[in-house]
Amino acid sequence: MYEVGWRPEAQRDALVSGLPPAMRGIQWNVDVVTALPDGAVELAATAEGELQVARFAPTVWGVQLHPEADEPIVRSWAAGDRDDHLERGIDQDAVLAGIDAARTELDEVWRPLATALVAVVGAR
Questions:
Q1: Predicted confidence band at 25 (pLDDT cuts at 50, 70, 90)?
Q2: How far from chain centre, in Å, is Cα 63?
Q3: Based on the structure, what is the number of domains in the chain?
Q4: Mapped to the 3 state alphabet, what secondary structure does 17-55 carry?
């Protein structure tokens, strides 16, 4: 999990403006966006500057982290990545335990994202 913070532009965004100012999110993959296309707006990033949420058009967003991931999903990813994690020195059991321990927080923080998306889509 990563600490994620919103950029000032997020305060004016139709989708994410109502979310908490800082939160944690699950990012499982090692792919990292290094540059946004012209016109895209960075809305959230980790403390290390890794993009987590961007807006590409008025009603088009991209999310790097995984607000939808519950334990069965994450555990299936973990099973598939076990050898890679061992090679990279990642304590997968500790990571999974941390996600399990944060489940209530993750649900409370990211469920409003789904609610906001439904509202934005419904308004169109």
A1: confident
A2: 6
A3: 1
A4: CCCCCEEEECCCCCCCCCCCCCCCEEEEEECCCCEEEEE
Rounded to an integer, what distance in angstroms lies between the CA atom of residue 56 and that of residue 36?
Answer: 9
pTM of the model: 0.83
Is residue 25 within 8 Å of 67, Cβ to Cβ? yes
CATH for 32? 3.40.50.880
27-81 pLDDT, tens per residue?
A: 887 777 888 999 999 999 988 888 999 999 988 999 888 888 888 889 998 999 9
Helix (H, G, I), strand (E, B) or coil at 69: coil
Residue-range definition of the domain harbouring residue 30: 2-123
